[in-house]
Amino acid sequence: MDDSFCWLIVGSGSPELREHLQYQIDSMGMHDDVFIADNVFPAAPVYRVASLVVLPSENESFGMVLAEASAFSVPVVATQIGGIPEVIQNNQTGTLFTSR
């Protein structure tokens, strides 16, 4: 992968989920390109260097991360579910997609 690009997965999922994600990352040889972090506070330093925020939620009541990303002018891609369309207007303030 391009040395100037990496993925940062942020959140406090279960240890099993984190282990599964790390296994997938390692099995694809992406351990130098994909990093997993627990919740980050303060989040501002992450948004300042982010090129894109992706929120592929299957259940999301509001999507605070999207409001925060928008405040830092970071483009967003998110599922069109729950309260997300109240925060992001498709093709105007971000890109929304339907989940499978």
UniProtKB/TrEMBL annotation:
Keywords: Glycosyltransferase, Transferase. SUPFAM superfamilies: UDP-Glycosyltransferase/glycogen phosphorylase. It comes from the Bacteria. The keyword Heme does not apply. The keyword RNA-binding does not apply. GO terms for molecular function: D-inositol-3-phosphate glycosyltransferase activity. This is Glycosyl transferase RfaG. It comes from Escherichia coli.
